[in-house]
Amino acid sequence: MPPLRTAFILRDDPGTSPRSFCEVAPKAVNNVIHYGGGGTPTTIISGLLSFETVILKPMVRLLPSLILVKDDQARTLALHTTLQLLASEMVELAPGSEVVANRLGEVLFIQTIRTHIASGAESSKQGWLRAVFDPRIGAALKSVRENVKKPWTVESLAAASGMSRSAFDARFKELLGQTPLEYLTE
Predict the structure, then answer these.
(1) pLDDT, position 127
(2) In order of start, what are the domains of the chain with their CATH numbers?
C-alpha cells in the first residue's frame, strides 16, 4: 500500500490541468461525493486498509502501490456484490455500519488482489502476490506466517514447500526478488 501521503492524479484528458479534489468536490453526504457531470458516469471507491499484525507489514510493502480494476476486468459476481454491499452500508448508515463496512473492506481487498492476479497485469507476475498464490512458495510463506517464532532456515522452508533446497531458493528469488533469508530477516 502506498504511504498515506501518496497522491494520485485523475484526469478526463491528458491536456486537462489537474485540480485538487478537496477544493472542488462538494461536501460528502453519507461518505459519498458526487462531482462533475455531462460525461460517462464513473465510480471511484477509495479507502484505507491498515495492517496491525507485525508479520503482515513487510508483505504490505511488496504490494503494488495502485491496483486499477476496470469494470470489464471485475468478472466475478462476488466482487460486484461486495462493492454493492459496501456502497449500501456507506449510503444508508445504520447501527453497526462501520463494523460491516470494515469487514467488507477486508473482503474487497482480497477480491481485488484476486482480480489483479487474474488480470495478468505485469505487477502480478512477480512479487509477494504471485508468491502467495504459487502452490509451493505460498505453502512456505503460510508456514512462516503461522509460526513466526520458529528459527526458519532455507532447508526448513524448502521442506515446508515440498521442494529441494536449490529449487526452492531459485523459485523464491524468481518470485520475490530476494533470497529466503533476506525475506526472513525483514
Answers:
(1) 72
(2) 21-123 (no CATH), 128-185 (1.10.10.60)
